[in-house]
């Protein structure tokens, strides 16, 4: 499942790989771009970003998205825009991993992924620690992952 090596500037958490291509220090804080590889059935808990807009650019695979009560599917070559403050989640479906770019405006939220990778927190066992880190990155969890 390796599209990119797990180098010092990449992280793995819960089977998902994150590699920051453009960080806030490269953009004056304006944005971050994270290359992400998620296995089949990967799904974060439903959540809200209070300060960041989030854009998903699917490079391979298929995801079902839930945003603000609406379900829809996107595949390679398609994008999804989730404005800040909108409750959302996604799940990788089909039989292949999903590689997608996550574009965050402004940048900085990608630090959450690296914090979780360092701690190797598990969902749901370590939700208290996960929620503590999430609060530092303006993230609120609002429900379960898709499929749960």
Describe what this molecule looks like in 3D.
The chain is mainly beta and 148 residues long. Helices cover 13% and strands 44% of the residues. The strands form 3 sheets. Strands 1-2-3-10-5-8 form a 6-stranded antiparallel beta sheet, covered by helices on one side. A 3-stranded antiparallel beta sheet has the order 7-6-9, with no helix packed on it. A two-stranded antiparallel ribbon has the order 4-11. It has helices at 111-119, 127-136, and strands spanning 10-13, 16-22, 32-38, 46-49, 53-60, 62-67, 70-75, 79-82, 88-93, 98-105, 139-143.
Protein topology:
Layout: E1 10-13, E2 16-22, E3 32-38, E4 46-49, E5 53-60, E6 62-67, E7 70-75, E8 79-82, E9 88-93, E10 98-105, H1 111-119, H2 127-136, E11 139-143
């Amino acid at each position: 499942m390796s599209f990119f090596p797990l180098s010092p500037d990449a992280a793995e958490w819960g089977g998902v790989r994150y590699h920051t291509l453009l960080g806030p220090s490269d953009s004056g804080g304006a944005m971050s771009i994270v290359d992400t590889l998620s296995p089949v059935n990967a799904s974060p808990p439903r959540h809200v970003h209070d300060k960041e807009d989030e854009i998903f650019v699917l490079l391979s695979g298929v995801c079902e998205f839930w945003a603000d009560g609406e379900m829809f599917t996107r595949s390679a070559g398609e994008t999804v825009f989730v404005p800040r403050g909108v409750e959302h989640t996604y799940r990788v479906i089909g039989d292949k991993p999903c590689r997608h770019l996550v574009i965050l405006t402004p940048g900085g939220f990608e630090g959450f992924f690296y914090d979780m990778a360092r701690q190797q927190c598990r969902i749901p066992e370590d939700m208290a620690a996960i929620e503590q880190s999430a609060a530092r990155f303006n993230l609120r969890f609002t429900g379960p992952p898709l499929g749960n």
